[in-house]
Specification:
A five-stranded mixed sheet has the order 1-2-5-4-3. It has six helices and nine strands, in the order αββαββββαβββααα. About 15% of the residues lie in helices and about 20% in strands. The longest helix is centred in the middle third of the chain and has 12 residues. It is of the alpha/beta class and about 280 residues long. The mean pLDDT is about 80.
Length: about 280
């Protein structure tokens, strides 16, 4: 059976899409480009809900597939919120993004797509981005008592608290993280460039050389010389009894430690062992 090919292309072309959308959305779009095969529109934060509704109603982008967050700590508005849309009828995808900071909320789009409720909760939980109009903005992935937002670049690698099961209380308890080595300092620099501060142990590299180092300039400083060589050639054990020549055996063999009478000679052969151990008569 031959394969059935659908008439629609696998991916729709981007030709003319960017110009059409930018012209239709007007001043709400602050930037547009094609990246990784998809159209990316940057829009003003206050206009994001209006732009997304226009894309759904007027340009047939029916589905909101995902909302993602990105953190750029060096920017004034450090967070980007990225909306990924799909047009089922056009077989085409676009991305719309806006930016915000830690305190300024982004308009919710739950009135456009109900599934945005969970997606906005995820961005809030992991990045701390607020969404104005979302009536159920709770954590969705971390625990209820979790502190901080773990996808932020300045979030410590080990977190702030750790959990364990307490045998005394018979439940899971939370405790502050105690580190022997502090892992919470981030300078966002390449390890090959080196740090601006002195690392522990590096201060030894700047130690000046010793003015009067101790050296061994003559044999007497080391104990070597003719006198030492003469004593080394002498045999220390000379004159000891063990060194005197003799034909006698100085150390007799030890007496036997066992006091067991001689055993009687064994009868039979080793081949008789099997029959000898088999039960006889009624013992079988």
């Amino acid at each position: 059976m031959g394969s059935v090919l659908h008439s629609a292309p696998k991916y729709a072309s981007n030709d003319g899409v960017q110009d059409t959308l930018v012209s239709a959305l007007g001043s709400a779009v602050t930037g547009a480009r094609e990246e990784h095969g998809e159209i990316l529109l940057t829009v003003a934060r206050d206009e994001v809900a209006n732009v997304l509704q226009a894309l759904r109603d007027d340009h047939a982008y029916q589905q909101l597939m995902e909302i993602a967050g990105v953190d750029y700590p060096g920017r004034a508005e450090r967070f980007e919120v990225v909306y990924m849309l799909l047009s089922v009828t056009k077989n085409h995808r676009i991305m719309v993004k806006t930016s915000t900071d830690e305190a300024t909320p982004v308009p919710t789009v739950t009135h456009i797509w109900p599934n945005a409720g969970w997606l906005e909760r995820e961005v809030f939980d992991l990045y701390g981005v607020l969404f104005d109009g979302n009536t159920d903005l709770r954590r969705i992935l971390t625990d209820y008592g979790f502190e901080g937002h773990p996808f932020r670049k300045d979030f410590p690698l080990t977190g702030y608290t750790e959990l364990r099961y307490s045998e005394d209380e018979k439940r899971v308890v939370y405790e502050p993280v105690k580190l022997a080595q502090d892992l919470r300092q981030f300078d966002f620099m390449s390890p090959w460039e080196g740090a601006d501060y002195v690392l522990p142990g590096d201060e030894k590299a700047d130690t000046p050389p010793i003015d009067d180092p101790k050296v061994t300039e003559k044999p007497s400083d080391t104990g070597a010389g003719k006198k030492t060589d003469k004593h080394a050639a002498e045999k220390v054990s000379a004159g000891a009894p063990a060194e005197e020549p003799t034909d006698e055996e100085r150390t007799p063999p030890p007496e036997p430690t066992e006091d067991q009478p001689a055993r009687a000679a064994r009868k039979g052969k080793t081949t008789d062992t099997g029959p000898a151990t088999e039960p006889k008569g009624d013992d079988a």
